[in-house]
Amino acid sequence: MTYRNTKILIVCMLLLGALVLAQDTDIRLPGNNQGYEPEQPIAFSHRLHAGELNIDCQFCHYGAESSRHAGIPSASVCMNCHKTVTAKFDTVLIERELAEVEGRDPRRIISPELRKLYDAVGLDENLQPTAEGGTPIEWVRVHNLPDFVYFDHRVHVARDLACETCHGPVGSMERMRQFADLSMGWCVQCHRDTPAIPGGPAEDHASTDCAACHY
Ligand code: HEC
Ligand code: HEC
Ligand code: HEC
Ligand code: HEC
Ligand code: HEC
After folding, report:
1. How far apart are CA 120 and CA 52, in angstroms?
2. Quick check: helix, strand or coil at residue 194?
3. What is the C-alpha separation between 213 and 152, in angstroms, rounded?
4. Does residue 42's CB lie within 6 angstroms of at least one atom of ligand 2?
5. Is 212 close to ligand 5, i.e. is its CB under 6 Å away?
6. Over the chain (215 residues), what is each successive 10-residue block's mean pLDDT?
7. Angle, CA of 46, 49 and 54, to the nearest 5°
8. Closest ligand (CA of 70)
9. Ligand number, closest to the Cα atom of 40
10. In testing the pocket of ligand 2, which one of 166, 181, 207 has its CB within 8 Å of the most ligand atoms?
11. Model's pTM, two decimal places?
């Protein structure tokens, strides 16, 4: 038996083991979580930020091109804008008009959702640093491939696959949801259909070797 075959056999045995274990212990196997749309600690809207405001995906997910994980931005990335944007523009305008009518200075309006962001970076109601500091936002993971699958954003982004090919119409999602089923069939189907070299012959396609995705 060649080294390679041995490796594949070991991979298969490990996978079967993982499957048995998962069934025994009732761990939810990902792959059929299509549509999973968990509530998040802050009602962050991709529709607003990526859609309406048209902020580039990689402004926030800057890992996608250079590392395995696209990454979730830290609150400091949000603060680039939210140091000054403390509520929706409409709300701020209404307060400005009211203040003018009432002959006073407009009050700073902080929306409840953005208040949570300021708590996370440790800013008080006047946006001054608090003594206690902040607590990181605990975003709930939406996509969860099992540990025995290897996925890397780099190779895919380098091939100019748009984020939306795999993540769907993110610019219209009020709350993030899992678009694809993330099944093995989904991965392998695209690998079979996509030439290994851009513009190359389809029979010379992206890898379908077990060991490419399972090690
Ligand atoms: C202003 C920053 C920002 C921009 C721009 C942005 N995102 Fe996000 N993204 C986030 C944050 C914060 C989360 C975590 C909260 C959530 O899931 O909504 C997230 C979550 C995600 C997730 C789910 C991650 C997981 O938990 O599995 C995907 C996929 C994603 N974004 C894709 C995109 C794509 C594609 C674009 C561009 C069309 C984009 N994002 C633009 C900030 C951003
Ligand atoms: C070929 C399909 C594909 C493409 C293209 C793709 N993703 Fe992903 N993305 C995935 C898969 C699969 C996962 C789940 C990975 C895991 O659970 O380890 C994922 C997970 C994520 C996550 C959460 C976990 C992490 O890696 O940090 C974010 C955020 C994300 N993608 C953003 C993006 C953005 C932004 C782009 C475009 C620049 C993009 N993705 C392009 C398939 C893709
Ligand atoms: C490039 C600028 C920019 C970045 C970066 C950005 N935002 Fe925003 N965000 C805005 C603007 C502008 C608005 C208000 C849009 C409006 O007037 O409707 C907004 C609105 C919001 C709202 C809605 C506020 C309300 O009153 O309901 C929330 C919540 C929010 N952002 C959270 C975040 C989080 C969390 C991050 C970081 C992951 C982030 N934003 C990053 C520009 C940004
Ligand atoms: C929409 C198409 C598409 C989807 C969906 C997709 N891939 Fe890919 N994948 C590609 C392309 C294109 C390449 C690059 C092929 C090349 O350049 O040789 C690639 C390359 C890879 C590589 C590197 C292979 C090597 O031998 O270097 C791995 C690993 C990989 N993908 C894993 C996955 C996994 C795991 C999934 C599913 C969770 C997935 N891919 C889903 C298109 C896709
Ligand atoms: C392009 C990536 C890719 C390739 C190539 C690939 N797999 Fe998978 N495989 C996956 C993903 C993603 C999952 C998890 C999806 C799920 O649980 O439905 C998975 C799950 C599995 C499972 C767990 C059972 C299941 O369906 O959940 C086994 C066993 C398995 N693969 C064996 C193999 C073997 C054997 C090969 C080679 C013939 C192979 N895989 C090639 C991506 C791949």
Report:
1. 25
2. coil
3. 10
4. no
5. yes
6. 63 60 45 87 98 98 96 97 96 95 95 97 95 95 95 95 98 98 96 90 90 93
7. 115
8. 2
9. 1
10. 166
11. 0.92
